[in-house]
Every structure is written in structure tokens, then in C-alpha cells.
Amino acid sequence: MRVQLFRSALGAAVACLLGSSALASTLIVHAKVIDGSGASARSVSIRIDQDRIVAVGQLKPSRGETVVDAKGLTLAPGFIDAHSHHDRQAEKTPEMAALTAQGVTTIVVGQDGESALPLKAYFETLARSPLAVNVASYTGHGSLRARAMGQDYKRAATPAEMATMSTELAEDLRAGSLGLSTGLEYDPGIYGPPEEVVALAKTAAAGGGRYISHLRSEDVKLDAAIDEIIAIGREAKLPVQISHLKIGLVDRWGEAPRILAKLDAARAQGVDITADVYPYSYWQSNLSVLLPERNFQDRAAARFALTKLTTPEGLRIAVFAPDPSLVGKTIAQIAAERHADPVETYLALTRQSEAYRATHPEVERVDAVIGSAMAESDIAAFIAWKHAVICSDGMTHGLHPRGFGAFAKILRVYVREKRLLTLEQAIHKMSAQTAAQLGLAERGTIAPGYHADLVLFDPARIADRSDLDHPNALATGVSTVWVNGVVVFDKGVPTQARPGQVVRRASWRPGG
């Protein structure tokens, strides 16, 4: 009887131990911890239990605890991509190695006015089939317009259509949307007048959301576009953020200080305006974006675009559904093959793309181009701005290297090589500051109670390897990445774990 009682007691004790959080916890030791706040690195240990950080300090291993020896590497909060398109075709690569190899643990999607609708259904899909990284989303103005107006969108919305858009936006906010995004250089958002955008921004503000925008112009009419977003912040009384802040007009290169002075003046007047930036001098968009009037016969406008906004040698085809054999070629190369003028070649390709789009509405991405357009000095000034955070504006399946290298490039170029930022400043911009600017709770900081999204890396070795010739090369220098306490990337390879969660805005509560 005594033996039986002893065995029962021992079994109960073992069962209790196996089910305890102590056994499930992980202790990371011997790391240089940069917590995301901007403070200097500390030599402390971090304890993870389930999906949370539970202790930070001089900690001793608990019995049965997994101990990870960081061997002097830097431990930081997982990076947050403030403007991402990695959700596109994410089901093909749910391990998200393009991101985790750089230390990115959360992506913010629904950008440029384009999002899943309704977000409630999208979030439910992510809950059933999660990714390796966390996902937060805005609600896209263009997507709202397309639902309310169909193909008849080249006009202002009617009051009834506005009511439909406002109702759907409010529903998304109740589901946890971060707010409203616009792509005011793109169809169909380009046809939405300022008063339409302000009205929807007020709906976002009423629901506790924010506003983020690809401006109406990043080149010729940049000042007016910035004035518009400042006015939206002032009138709708909500935080506003400029997507991928840049100066895309050759004649205005070097004017970053003047642009930043305008933004600082707006902040001094009470407008909470911020920006995100990617560290590349070339963008990716669609063919028609260079023709704001959408006149595909206008040789003068096309010539201006290929002189002042980019060049035939600097405009490379990234996607072209009508003829995939053109992918990777520049307008100059295609023109030479056709023995044609680059201006007419560009216009002909644009017309071909628009015709294909009209007859193939089921094709999600008909065309995309990569264009060289920005000055390095302006990029550096925007990155250094106190209220700028970092983004990729990238995707996993594309030819722009930013999707695989933006965050590693910041650490290689702007921290290690140019010393524009300290390591602590860069990590702050890529973690805690991003979480604060976008309204993400309990992310971006190494502190008890925060989600255990962490990256362990070597500051002397972390580097981007992606470029225009090798756009999908993984970054190097990251040792281990945890998402919600689960290792998703280790020793240079993804683990195939998919612990990513849906991230809703900080003010969100279940049931709206």
C-alpha cells in the first residue's frame, strides 16, 4: 500500500512538473540586450514563458528550464515592418524566411489603399492557418471604393456609396483594423477627392484608428500632397503617417531638410504626423503611376517621366502578365530590341497592360516596374528624422530586393558603415517606435508582459545580400528568431513553425 501511495504521489508530482510553466519556460543568457526603448545595451537574462517575456534581469535557471546561451550576441525585440506587402501569396511561403532572416517578426499590411475585405474574415483565415510572423492590417480606401463603386470609380462617390464605405470601415475597425490606408496615386483611390478621404478618416478616428497614406504625388506635386495629409490629420483629429517618404523628382533632390521642416512645423501645430522609409533609391509600382493623368497617348508626359522621374535604363519590368518574357528587362533594353523610341515603348507597354487588365479582371497583379528615382542624401535624412520608422514596402515574390533586405541593410549601411544611427537608435526605430506610431500594444519592447518576439544577431555580421540581380537572397547574421516564444528561424534556416498571431490595434477590445 505504501509503495502504491508513493508511486501515486510521485506520478502526481511529475504530472504537475510537466504541466508547469517552469518546465515550458526558456532562459536566454549571456546576451547583450537592447530592449527597443533606445537605452544602451545591458548584460541581462530574459525569461520566456509561453508567448510572453516574464522576467528581465540577473536570473538563474529554473529546474528543467531550457537555457539558450547567446554567447555575447545582441538580443533585440523582433523588428516590425511598418509597411509590408509580404501577405501577397503568403500561403506559398508561410515560413516567411525573407523576413525572419532579417529579424522581422511582425508585418503591417493593408497598405497603399489595398486590403482584404472584410478584415474579420481575413483574420479568421490567419487564425486557422497562421504564418511564421504576426500580421496587423489597415483597411484600404481603394478596396472600399472598389466594393462600393465597382468599375465605375473614375468619379467622386455618391452619398450612398460613401455610407457603404464608412459602414464597412467601421466594421473593420471593430474587427481590429489599425485604421484607414490610402493609395492616392493608384486606381481607384486617385479619383477620390480630398473631402471623401477626410470623411473616411473621421470614421477611422471615431473607431480609434489611424491614417496612413501613399500620397497623391511623390514628385511633381509633393508639397500639395503633404499639405493634404497634414490637413487630414488636423481635420479628422487622428495620427497620420506618410508611407515610404521620398522625393521622386530629380529637380528636387536634396530638399529633404525643407520637407522635414514642413513636417516638424505641422507637429508643432498639433498634427501627429510621422513617416516610414525604406533604404533604397528605387521604388516598385505599376506602369501607369508615372502618368497621373492616365493619358496613355501623351508623349510629352511620358518623356517627362523618363527624364525627371526615372530613366529608360532605370525602369525595369518586374511583372508583366501580357508578356512574361519581358520581366527583368529595362525600357531601354526593350526599346532597343524593338528598334523603337523608349518613350513610345513605355506608352505601348502601358497600353498593352491596361488592355490586358480590362480583359483579365481575375489577374491580381498585371504589371509592376522598378524605377530608380531618389537621392541617397535624401534617403539618409528621412531615415534619421526623429519621427521616421523603417519599412520594406516589399514582398516575398518580387524582383525588388527590399522584401529580403531592408532591415538588414539599415543595420549594415546606416549603423555599421555610415554611422548615421547608433545600434540602439536603429533598433528603437524598428521596434518600440514603430509599435507606438502604429498603435500596437505589447510588441516592440523587451519587458515583462510583452510578447516574446525576439531576434538574436551579430551586429558585426548582419547584412543584406539581395540586390537587383539577386533580389531573393536571404540576409545573413541573424542567429535565432522567436515569434510569440517559438523559434521560427535558427542557424540560418526557418524551423517551419508558424506561431504568428493577428495583431489588432491597441485600443481594440473583443466585440468592438
Automatic annotation (TrEMBL):
Amidohydrolase domain residues: 67-489
Gene3D superfamilies: D-aminoacylase. Domain 3, Metal-dependent hydrolases, Urease, subunit C, domain 1
Leader sequence residues: 1-24
Annotated Pfam families: Amidohydro_3 (PF07969)
Alphabetic keyword roster: Hydrolase, Signal
Protein origin, superkingdom: Bacteria
Protein family: Belongs to the metallo-dependent hydrolases superfamily. NagA family.
The protein's name in its UniProt record: D-aminoacylase
